[in-house]
DNA sequence: CCGGGAAATGAAAATGGTTGTCAAAATCGC
DNA sequence: GCGATTTTGACAACCATTTTCATTTCCCGG
């Protein structure tokens, strides 16, 4: 229905890592797209609600979004330098979370798991001769 | 040095779960403490910087703090209803995070892991009996 | 006890991401 | 074409957090 929402989704698909609403907005405007910030926020929220994109909070507390390849439950390995993101599965972690919750009598157990690091490209020594 | 910082720390110790700066401030004022909101923010940040309290972001993006029993690396099992928090260890998760990072050539790997659920007290049926 | 300088404090203003408002514009159904 | 419905986006409102800056407190030598 919404060409704007699709445009937002497309913009996100072109990005490798997680992007904030403001990022997406700026990029779309830069490429000549005619869209308002409010609409970008709404599109992003709608996409997240529909499970079309993943959302998490960065260190600044901003919501950042990413169009992941899979709709399955997964987590992320994110380069804190360049933002390069790898989707990773962790069956052990899934089990662990469930177990830990059950051990303490918790139900409806969910979890958040994110892994950060410096990717190989970014960890290549710059000053090494 | 700072009696204020100690007061903030004490207030946090009296809380079972994670509390926001505004929460702590409100509670301290309620109990008659003479302190400003700015100072509460600063004390909380300082305590977090010194590893004296744990900090994470709640669903609203607010920073929430907790005075944990151990200074060791650990994670949390949090009741999303009453905030009841259990400190949990997850050696398997620690290993998994390292492994996943290494497999993809990432270095300086860190992670965030939080488990949420409904604690036994909160999951007791209310209308039953 | 006195004074100066550094550190701590907090009221008020600024910041900034996000959400709410609401009128205009686009779309739909007929 | 036309009214009903949805979408859009400029702008204002929100609200947690930060910054500012003048005042207060603390520390310490004299
Ligand atoms: Zn990188
Ligand atoms: Zn998982
Ligand atoms: Zn509970
Ligand atoms: Zn860990």
UniProtKB/TrEMBL annotation, chains A, B:
Homodimer. Keywords: Cytoplasm, DNA-binding, Metal-binding, Repressor, Transcription, Transcription regulation, Zinc. It is found in: Cytoplasm. It comes from Nonomuraea corallina. It comes from the Bacteria. SUPFAM superfamilies: Winged helix' DNA-binding domain. Belongs to the Fur family. InterPro entries: FUR (IPR002481), Fur_C (IPR043135), WH-like_DNA-bd_sf (IPR036388), WH_DNA-bd_sf (IPR036390). This is Transcriptional repressor. Signal peptide: none annotated.
């Amino acid at each position: 229905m919404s060409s704007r929402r699709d445009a937002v989704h497309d913009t996100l698909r072109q990005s490798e890592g997680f992007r904030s609403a403001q990022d997406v907005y700026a990029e779309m405007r830069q490429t000549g797209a005619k869209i308002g910030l409010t609409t970008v926020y709404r599109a992003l929220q709608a996409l997240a609600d529909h499970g079309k994109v993943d959302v998490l909070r960065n260190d600044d507390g901003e919501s950042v979004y990413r169009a992941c390849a899979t709709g399955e439950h997964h987590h992320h390995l994110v380069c804190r330098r360049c933002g390069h993101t790898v989707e990773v599965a962790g069956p052990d972690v899934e089990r662990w979370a469930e177990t830990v919750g059950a051990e303490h009598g918790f139900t409806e157990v969910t979890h958040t798991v994110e892994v950060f690091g410096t990717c190989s490209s970014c960890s290549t020594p710059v000053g090494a001769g």
